[in-house]
Design brief:
The protein has helices at 86-132, 143-160, 205-213, 225-258, 285-296, 316-323, 346-360, 372-385, 399-403, 406-416, 421-428, 432-442, 449-457, 462-470, 480-487, 494-504, and strands spanning 8-11, 15-17, 23-25, 46-49, 57-60, 69-72, 183-186, 199-203, 219-221, 262-270, 273-281, 303-311, 331-333, 336-338, 341-342. With 524 residues, the chain is α+β, with helices and mostly antiparallel strands. The protein folds into five domains: 8-80, no CATH class; 85-258, no CATH class; 260-360, no CATH class; 399-442; 449-510. A four-stranded antiparallel β-sheet has the order 12-10-11-15. A three-stranded antiparallel β-sheet has the order 8-7-9. Strands 1-6 form a two-stranded antiparallel ribbon. Residues 37-65 form the Competence protein CoiA-like N-terminal domain.
Length: 524
């Protein structure tokens, strides 16, 4: 079972918001207050912390708006397990990454749908309250409508206020009007903001006065029940949507940058012996190897041989260091120590190269593109390269092949046994459209008479067609005008219909229904 918290860890803020409302990753901003960014949650000013001990992050210049929050561990810096082979770890981490992306997408879609529903209900609520608070035509407003007007004003202020400055939930229990046919009595008094009240029993307008006299204060119109619940959730859903949108955008922003890094594994021949180096780079590998050669040049002649380059698996770097920490072989140079070098035995080198080569295959690429459309296009490219054909077949499915399917055979047996289409649907759980398609396929073909005439006569004139039709009967019922009428979809006379069927070599039972003939009334 997938652990929903896998790959998550408590981290500092990794992204900040610039003046263009764009999220900037910590790796892309200058150090300190020069970053000129604000918190995406509270819009407070930030400073970029880029020390040598802690993970680079943003910090608030004032008090932090929230404690440490979960972030996905893109670089796998918090994985303690080191027993997995490199390719198995890469696949595990990639699955966690894609699962986290799917979780954020699903949660965001669900919350956006809830927010749209709440907004629609709030619009309906404002319209209802405006309707029940209108004054009479004389301009006077009775006491109940005056109260409704005050509730309307409170609701408008509640919706327009910020979450931190909001007041209590407007008192919808004060709304009264003759258009409300029933009310609901809340068994429990409303709790503090954010809690969901439990509904009680129905109260008719005739009982309303007695209930109010008994001291019951929360009688809400039944028509406003769902609006009341939406009003309670309004600010909470807004805040949750804002936070989740920021988290989702930060994840996508980090992922877009993350997939540009590739993991490399090099063999380096030095005068003192052979070492191996791992690392990540977003640049072309020859450019990176030239830089490594310059760093090692003070140690003597250097020969660098690339053994593997795996795209979009930058998270292998931290795992590789922990897994082979016992083989680490630092090098001391004039510019400082170089730590990402390893003195590996031949069997370990072979295992590493084999694992990395398996990841280099197309069907084992652990990281997918960041958006759904990009993933679809990437999958289509891989399928095309492997010789697969995607989508619907270019030619329609043949009737014989369709009826030979096991599902179609079962439907045919049930149809011939006298079962109706709906009975077959209930018994088999097959789609009703599939059952209808089989049923229509079993029926003899039917034709439109007009289509048969057009196809038969092609480019010949109407008079020639009339002569051909008349040759099949004795009394010459076919005239050019009647041929054109039949071609336009009108039902011919019985004699002409019989002549046309003989000429077209089709049975009258195979013809589809005709349009009704419109007969002009004679003037009296």
């Amino acid at each position: 079972m997938h652990n929903p918290d896998a790959g998550l860890y408590q981290a500092w803020l990794q992204v900040g918001l610039n003046r263009q409302e764009q999220l900037i990753h910590i790796s892309e901003s200058p150090r300190g207050e020069a970053c000129a960014l604000v918190c995406p949650h509270c819009h407070g000013p930030l400073t970029a912390k880029k020390g040598r001990i802690k993970v680079h992050h943003y910090a608030h210049l004032a008090n932090s708006c929230r404690p440490l929050i979960p972030h996905f561990d893109f670089w796998a810096t918090n994985v303690d397990e080191t027993s997995w082979p490199l390719d198995e770890f890469a696949q595990r981490h990639a699955q966690q990454l894609l699962a986290e992306q799917q979780r954020l997408n699903e949660q965001l879609t669900k919350l956006q749908t809830n927010w749209q529903t709440i907004k629609i209900l709030m619009t309906e609520l404002l319209n209802i309250l405006d309707d029940v608070s209108q004054p009479y035509k004389t301009g006077t407003r009775p006491a109940n409508r005056q109260v409704n007007q005050e509730v309307l004003t409170d609701v408008q202020a509640f919706l327009e206020s910020s979450s931190s400055d909001r007041g209590p939930v407007p008192a919808l229990h004060k709304v009264r009007h003759s258009q409300f046919s029933s009310y609901w009595n809340l068994d429990l008094k409303p709790k503090k903001w954010g809690s969901v009240s439990e509904w009680g029993y129905s109260v008719s307008p005739g009982q309303l006065w007695q209930e109010e006299l008994s001291g019951t204060a929360y009688l809400i119109p039944s028509k406003l029940r769902k609006h009341y619940d939406a009003l309670i959730r309004y600010h909470r859903t807004y805040n949750e949507l804002a936070d989740l949108t920021t988290e989702h955008d930060a994840f996508e922003r980090t992922l877009t940058r993350f997939v540009t890094f590739n993991f490399y594994f090099l063999r380096i021949d030095l005068p003192s012996g052979t070492l191996y180096k791992s690392g990540v780079t977003s640049r072309p590998l020859p450019e990176r190897t030239a830089e490594i050669e310059r760093d090692l040049r003070p140690l003597g002649p250097v020969t660098i041989v690339p053994l593997a380059l795996v795209k979009q698996v930058g998270y292998l770097e931290a795992y590789f260091k922990r897994k082979y920490v016992s083989y680490q072989h630092p090098l001391n140079t004039a510019s400082g120590p170089l730590t990402e070098y390893f003195d590996l035995p031949p069997d370990e080198v072979g295992a590493i190269v084999t694992a990395l080569q398996s990841l280099m295959q197309d069907n084992a690429t652990p990281a997918e593109p960041t958006t759904r459309s990009e993933r679809v296009r990437a999958g289509m490219r891989r399928a095309k390269a492997s010789g697969k054909t995607l989508g619907r077949p270019k030619a329609p499915e043949r009737t014989g092949a369709f009826l030979q399917k096991a599902k179609s055979q079962l439907i045919v047996q049930l149809l011939r046994a006298g079962h109706s289409l709906r009975e077959i649907e209930r018994q088999t759980s097959f789609s009703i459209n599939t059952i209808r398609k089989v049923n229509e396929t079993l029926k003899p073909p039917t034709y439109h008479l007009a289509d048969l005439i057009r196809a038969k006569r092609a480019k010949r004139g109407v008079s020639a067609v009339a002569d051909e039709v008349n040759s099949h009967v004795l009394n010459g019922v076919a005239k050019p005008s009647t041929i054109l009428s039949a071609e336009n979809g009108y039902q011919p006379t019985p004699d002409l219909l019989m002549a046309l069927c003989q000429w077209l070599q089709v049975d009258a039972s195979q013809l589809k229904p005709f349009r009704k003939r419109v007969v002009a009334k004679r003037s009296v």
